[in-house]
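pasting for ref. prot 1 ->
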Amino acid sequence: MPIDKTKITKEMINKALHCNTAEELVALAKTENIEITKEEAESYLAELSNYELDSKALDKVAGGGCYSDCKAEAWL
């Protein structure tokens, strides 16, 4: 079942970025009343591991700025 992207917040994405395993991501999703399978979680984590910031966003992060204009939600 696809995730309703309108219910995903930046806070939820930030938490998801700290998950190291599919099990952690499934557990996090469950706390937010989102049901995902282990396979879906593995897929999302694989996408996150391949995510690269563009040079503008990388400059902001390296300089201590916010990269909120990045498309961090693209993996959802």
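and prot 2 ->
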Amino acid sequence: MFAASLLSPLDAATEHAMPLRAVPIQGAFEPLDAPGRRLLAARDGIYVEACSDALYVRVRCVAMHTPYGETSEALTLRGPRIPKAFARTLMERSLAVHPREMAALIVADAVDPSGYRLIEPEATGYVGRVTYADHGYDEARLVIDAHSHGPYPARFSGVDDESDHSRCGPHVSMVFGHCADRPSTKVAARVCVGHYLIPLSDDLWTELFA
């Protein structure tokens, strides 16, 4: 990295907001253990790493070869895993309001015995759109922002992109599509860290639930 004295004010601000670090080849890699975010240059590409009070993420955003060390993708809760009953509730709500859309949030909550709380914000769902009150919770404890698309595919829209870009993250965004019945319903998920919206494999996001 360049010496701080050589950086312009803009470059210094960028470095402070999103540092770039190389994954060591021989030394131990030390993941973030406090709230923050950064980019990592690793053997197989560039990773986004971010940590909040509720969630740790490390996901590849650019595939490329570099001379640096190896790392892998990770999606880890900083508390217990989320009970599967929460996932079932999200599915049931998506089916119940079809063909309209629903919205719900899962936030870490140390007071609740499960460690989490499901928030169903005041919302108005239509066919093809849902609007809801996005307040009344600590964003640093947000784990999942979920909504449904009624009869439409489980695919993130431009409006979804704007919503997910509006938060610093990290959080996981989920969308339920083709919600006419349980067998037809599909789910897409991505991790959101500010500007970065990165699709998640089922293997990663399903590990959040136990």
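Residues 4-77 form one domain.
Residues 59 and 73 are 5 Å apart (CA to CA).
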